[in-house]
């Protein structure tokens, strides 16, 4: 596949500097680009790397000056992602149901679907047109999957799960497993609380590899439209995640947490149960959040505190040994003065 610089400008809404008919065959990183390919520079500090790049053209933002044809856009990284998708469209799936797949009676196929070998679809499930189930996917009884959703190898979807349109679920994810619900019983035993609710995944969600999303005790666990979840995230029972949020790898969301719209939860962050995180908030990596978060907050640390305060605290930490030494010296001098006063 090839495209001219002018065609790429039309694709991303940019303007051309240099030859608009320059033909390009691909997109690559600065250090890997070859002649005939386009690369991108999102920040001025990376311009020295461009001088050593063989790329024939570059995506830049206004205000940057370069030594070769350029595509000028307001957001270089966004334009790069669109051009990358243009040069690397997804491979066309095999259509139809492979004879080695297991599709039980009562399954509704609303259009042409792709079901690969050894996938299993339980009774009464409903698959929208364009759904792709890769090898080893298990779809429980009564599950609904919206059109153009792609589910990769060895995903397990329990009964009672509803998945919207254009969802992507990566290998090893588990949706609808029992929530971690137990109550102390006689003799120190733990009595299991039946988990009889469901899971709802709204449109345009992407779920990373080995993510676990538990079913609700009652009601539903819900992931809002457009939210993106990284690998190895745990979402507990009855959690509600708002639209267009980001949850990064190894984060853990405890039961009955409510997360607003446009929230970012960074890697290894942990949220305690029954709290609310307001719209537009950011929880920094490895933070531990135990109480409600106001909309627009930026929190860091354990326990999580406002990020600006956390930076001030961290700036003090290297000075603690010297502060302790000074305090000990002051204490010693004070004692000496008190002893001298008693003698006088």
Automatic annotation (TrEMBL):
Its EC number is 2.3.1.191. Residues 22-85 form the UDP-3-O-[3-hydroxymyristoyl] glucosamine N-acyltransferase non-repeat region domain. One of its GO terms (biological process) is lipid A biosynthetic process. It holds the Pfam family Hexapep. Keywords: Acyltransferase, Lipid A biosynthesis, Lipid biosynthesis, Lipid metabolism, Repeat, Transferase. The active site is at 237 (proton acceptor). GO terms for cellular component: membrane. CDD domains: LbH_LpxD (cd03352). Pathway: Bacterial outer membrane biogenesis; LPS lipid A biosynthesis. PROSITE patterns: HEXAPEP_TRANSFERASES. One of its GO terms (molecular function) is UDP-3-O-[(3R)-3-hydroxyacyl]-glucosamine N-acyltransferase activity. It comes from the Bacteria. Homotrimer. Belongs to the transferase hexapeptide repeat family. LpxD subfamily. HAMAP family: LpxD. This is UDP-3-O-acylglucosamine N-acyltransferase. It comes from Tectimicrobiota bacterium. The gene is lpxD.
